[in-house]
Automatic annotation (TrEMBL):
Domain of life from the UniProt record: Eukaryota
GO cellular component: mitochondrial inner membrane; mitochondrial matrix
EC identifiers of the protein: 2.7.4.10
Protein name per UniProt: GTP:AMP phosphotransferase, mitochondrial
Binding site for GTP: 54-59, 175, 184-185, 248
UniProt: AMP binding residues: 76, 81, 102-104, 133-136, 140, 208, 219
Domain notes: Consists of three domains, a large central CORE domain and two small peripheral domains, NMPbind and LID, which undergo movements during catalysis. The LID domain closes over the site of phosphoryl transfer upon GTP binding. Assembling and dissambling the active center during each catalytic cycle provides an effective means to prevent GTP hydrolysis.
Organism: Suhomyces tanzawaensis NRRL Y-17324
A GO term, aspect molecular function: AMP kinase activity
Gene assigned in the entry: ADK2
Enzyme class: transferase
InterPro entries per UniProt: Adenyl_kin_sub, Adenylat/UMP-CMP_kin, Adenylate_kinase_lid-dom, ADK_active_lid_dom_sf, AK3/Ak4_mitochondrial, P-loop_NTPase
């Protein structure tokens, strides 16, 4: 398929809006202990979370933002889904790839995300941020690295969330989301207060179109295909770590400890 035309960042919801949405996702988390005391970092964190679809990257990000208010976050999947919801040209073209469990072309993703990083003025040595879902191929990692290098910054922590893929498949069947906020629910271990309704707005929850068994398997396969190259790239840079566990409650404390050890 041909690469998508980049529709320009004007059509992209502002980063502040994205951040608010991601912070808002935390409000339905079952683990309230993490919001009890916020912490600060002494060194800027530029984190990439790697993990299979459904491994909990969004959940971990929300918890990090609640604990470390100075961290900003960007999720490529959330940005793409906003584009789809807005009906932009980019959204229309991206949805073909998303609905099939394939990847949006590298050139599109690189300009979409690096434009956002530049516009948000995050490319300096005092802003902490975390990326979820980008880079997702070795080519995207190389291209991002070139952009970051020009600003004298680089990804300084990559954490692979290692979750048993059999566990993930069960989890996805039970995953429902609130489309407008991207709040994530799991009917088994993080259910909404009222069945199938968002806790904050009361609006109906929906399934992601790409969370069907067939498309999800394709997404997992795509992730596994790309993982080796991505990990090799960041291992070479000495920033790669792995945190294993089959629930977000097991993974989160390990992730937080790693960040505190290196950046506070
Ligand atoms: P989950 O949100 O459950 O962790 P995921 O990581 O597969 O799963 P998203 O990151 O939300 O899901 O991405 C959804 C879809 O958006 C992907 O399947 C892909 O089609 C597209 N996409 C997101 N980020 C990228 C990227 N960096 N490069 C190419 N395509 C992307
Ligand atoms: Mg996600």
């Amino acid at each position: 398929m041909r690469p998508l035309a980049h529709s320009g960042t004007r059509a992209i919801p502002s980063i502040r809006h994205q951040i608010t949405r991601i912070r808002g996702q935390f409000s339905n988390s079952s683990n309230s202990s993490t919001i009890s005391s916020s912490m600060s970092l002494t060194r800027p964190l530029r984190l990439l979370l790697l993990g299979a679809p459904g491994s909990g990257k969004g959940t971990q990000t929300s918890r990090l933002l609640a604990k470390f208010p100075s961290i900003h976050a960007l999720s490529s999947g959330d940005i793409l889904r906003s584009q789809v919801a807005l009906g932009t040209q980019l959204g229309k073209e991206a949805s073909q790839y998303i609905n099939n469990g394939g990847l949006v072309p590298d050139t599109t993703m690189v300009s979409l995300i690096t434009d956002q990083l530049k516009q948000s003025q995050w490319l300096n040595n005092h802003t902490s941020w975390t990326l979820d879902g980008f880079p997702r191929t070795a080519q995207q990692a190389v291209a991002l690295d070139e952009v970051l290098d020009k600003s004298g910054v680089g990804i300084n922590l990559v954490v692979e969330l290692d979750v048993d893929q059999k566990v993930i498949l069960d989890r996805i069947e039970a995953r429902w989301i609130h489309a407008a906020s991207n709040r994530i629910y799991n009917l088994d271990y993080n259910p909404p207060k009222v069945p199938f309704k968002d806790d904050v707005t009361g609006e109906p929850l929906v399934k992601r179109k790409d969370d069907t068994a067939e498309v999800f398997q394709k997404r997992l396969d795509t992730y596994n295909d790309q993982l080796r190259g991505l990990k090799a790239f960041y291992k070479e840079k000495g920033v790669l770590h792995t945190v294993a566990g089959n629930t977000s409650d097991i993974i989160y404390p390990k992730l937080e400890e790693l960040i505190l050890e290196k950046f506070s």
